[in-house]
């Protein structure tokens, strides 16, 4: 199925829409472990905390999202108190519905099941667009989030690619079934392509690609690139981490 043309103007999200951020609550020695050889365990932990805080801050404070349902789906399941503290430091306490992923821990083998379970839970009471993002693209333009929601409300799914072949955003229209996550090749350079294939196989229309791939943060080089382009006003927690680590 060819991508459907869509203006994707960044209209504010509506009260029938939801934004769901999937995140790991940072844990020392267990989060962003690929960064430890370069930044040390404490540094990797600080980067993970800053990624989470700035993601929550930007999604939780944007006027474009004020009317939408905002959900933080997190692992591990006993991390609610720590997540609430992160939200408080980001000045967005109480703005997210907290949804634990018990007993999953966001391992790649469980990711499709976790996404499906949370999407079906949110979709049950959300008739509009459901936009799913992670914490590894904290500076993704909010216009991209709003434009994807607009496209989804109009009936087309949006997959916004990451630079490594994954994706940083998925917007699903009303009627998209939960099994669109089944069979996706997670944590490979074909993740975005296989997600599009899963959507097409289930008859979900796809919007035309709205922009170039966006970089996410998995490896030390990704951190360097993020620090180099960082807007400290938009991502103050990451700016503080950059000052402490470079």
Automatic annotation (TrEMBL):
This is Glycosyltransferase. InterPro entries: Nucleotide-diphossugar_trans (IPR029044), Trfase_1_rSAM/seldom-assoc (IPR018641). SUPFAM superfamilies: Nucleotide-diphospho-sugar transferases (SSF53448).
């Amino acid at each position: 199925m060819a991508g459907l043309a869509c203006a994707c103007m960044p209209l504010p999200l509506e009260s029938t829409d939801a934004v769901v951020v999937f995140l790991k609550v940072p844990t020392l020695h267990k989060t962003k472990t690929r960064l430890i050889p370069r930044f040390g365990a404490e540094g990797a932990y600080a980067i993970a905390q800053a990624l989470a805080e700035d993601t929550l801050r930007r999604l939780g404070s944007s006027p474009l999202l004020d009317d939408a349902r905002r959900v933080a789906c997190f692992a591990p399941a006993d991390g609610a108190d720590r997540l609430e503290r992160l939200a408080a430091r980001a000045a967005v306490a109480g703005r997210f519905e907290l949804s634990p992923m018990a007993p999953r821990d966001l391992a790649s083998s469980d990711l499709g099941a976790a996404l499906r379970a949370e999407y079906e839970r949110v979709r049950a009471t959300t008739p509009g667009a459901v936009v799913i993002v992670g914490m590894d693209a904290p500076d993704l333009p909010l216009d991209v989030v709003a434009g994807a929601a607009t496209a989804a409300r109009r009936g087309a799914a949006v997959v916004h690619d990451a630079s490594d072949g994954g994706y940083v955003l998925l917007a699903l229209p009303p009627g998209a079934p939960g099994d669109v996550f089944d069979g996706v090749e997670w944590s490979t350079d074909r993740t975005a392509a296989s997600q599009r294939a899963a959507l097409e196989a289930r008859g979900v229309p796809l919007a035309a690609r709205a922009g170039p791939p966006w970089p996410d943060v998995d490896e030390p080089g990704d951190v360097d690139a993020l620090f180099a382009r960082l807007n400290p006003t938009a991502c103050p927690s990451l700016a503080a981490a950059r000052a402490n680590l470079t």
